[in-house]
Amino acid sequence: MAIAKAERLMNLALCLLGTRRPLSKRELRESIEAYVEAFGPGRSAASGPGRGAASGPERTAAGSDDSFNRMFERDKDDLRELGLVIETVENLDGEVGYLARRDSNRLPPITLDAEEAAALGLAAKVWQQARLAGAASGALQKLRAAGLPEDVDPYEAHGALEPRIPVHEAAFEPLMLACRDRRPVVFDYRKATAARPEPRHVEPWALECWRGHWYLAGWDRDRGAERVFRLSRITGKVRSRGGGFTAEVPDAVTVRETVAGWAGEIADRTALIRLRAGAGYPLRAKATAVRELDEGWDELEIPYGHGLDAWLVEFGPDVVVVEPAELRADVVDRLRAVAKG
C-alpha cells in the first residue's frame, strides 16, 4: 500500500510539473494509471448513449467520482506538505485546473564548504542512537543530491572523539513529536521525593539534554506554571490529548534557561557541605573552597542552584549538608523517600 501511494504521488507530481497548461481533475484522472485502475475513467467518458436512464450505474459512477475526489484532495495536500507548489487556475469556462510551475519549485543551488559539511556530518553522528538518525541521514543524502561537493565526506571522522547523545528513555520519541506538533500530553511522573508516580498534564515546549540526562520543559496544566521533567522519571506511556495549547510558548532561549535552572546549571547561592575524604570528586570539582577537617572529613563551599539536593543524595553517607537549612531539609526528605522505597 505504501509503495502504491508513493508511486501515485510521484506520477501526479510528474504530471503537474510536466504540463504547460493547467490540467483539470478529469484530465488527471484519465492520465494517471493508479486513478484509472481504482476508479475508472471520469463520468463524461464513462457515460455513453443509453446509459443515462440506468439508476444503478449512475449511482455507482457518482460514488466513484466522490471517492476519486477525496483521494485526489488527499494526494494534493500530501504533495503540498512535501513542498511542491501547486497552483489552482480557473479558465474562461469556469473549469478549475492544476499545475506546478518549474520556476516555482526550483531551489537555489546549495553550496557548502568543507567545514560546513563536516558540521552536518558530526550532527548526524550525534543522533545515531535516536529516532533522528534516519532523518539526519536522509537530510545529508538530499544535500548530496542538491550539490554537496563530491570530494567532501560528511561522515568522515574529524577527530579522535565522536560525540553521542544516548536516548534510552521510551518517552523521548513521543515527547519529541508532541513538541514538534504542539500537542498536549499526559504521563505518569515520579518525583524524587515521592513514593508513587502521579499523572501530569503538560503542554510540551522543548527537550534539552543536560549532564547526560534528558529534560522536558513545558506548561503544567495542573499547577498552572512552567515545569521541567526529567525523562527518566516518566513511567508508563506518554499519551496525546486533543486541543491546542492554553499557555504562550516562550522563545527557545527562555526554554533553555528554564531547563538549565531546573537541572542545577544556574546557581545563585553557595552551600556549605561536609564531604568524606577521598569521596565525591565531582563535588570537589565544583567547589569554590575546600578546607580539611579532622576525622577524615573536608568542608566544601559549592554553588547552590535548583537540583543540588537530588545530586547530593547520590553520594549517600559521604555527604552532610551544613547550610542552608532548606537544602539540608530537602536532602533529608529525599533520603527518607528513598528509604520508604
Commentary on this structure:
This protein has 341 residues and is α+β, with helices and mostly antiparallel strands. 40% of the residues lie in helices and 22% in strands. The strands form three sheets. It has a five-stranded antiparallel β-sheet with strand order 6-5-4-3-7. Strands 9-10-8-11 form a four-stranded antiparallel β-sheet. The two termini are 50 Å apart.
What keyword list fits this structure?
341 residues; alpha+beta; 5-stranded antiparallel beta sheet; 4-stranded antiparallel beta sheet; 12 helices; 40% helix
Protein topology:
Elements: H1 2-18, H2 25-31, H3 33-39, H4 43-46, H5 55-81, E1 87-90, E2 96-99, H6 114-126, H7 132-145, H8 172-181, E3 185-189, E4 198-210, E5 213-220, E6 225-230, E7 234-240, H9 252-262, E8 267-276, H10 281-286, E9 289-292, E10 297-305, H11 308-313, E11 319-323, H12 325-340
Antiparallel strand pairs: 1-2, 3-4, 3-7, 4-5, 5-6, 8-10, 8-11, 9-10
Helix pairs in contact: 1-5, 6-7
Summarize the structure in short.
The protein has helices spanning 2-18, 25-31, 33-39, 43-46, 55-81, 114-126, 132-145, 172-181, 252-262, 281-286, 308-313, 325-340; strands at 87-90, 96-99, 185-189, 198-210, 213-220, 225-230, 234-240, 267-276, 289-292, 297-305, 319-323.
Q: How would the global form be characterised?
A: elongated
Largest sheet: 5 strands, antiparallel
Percent in helix: 40-55%
Mean pLDDT over the full residue set: 79
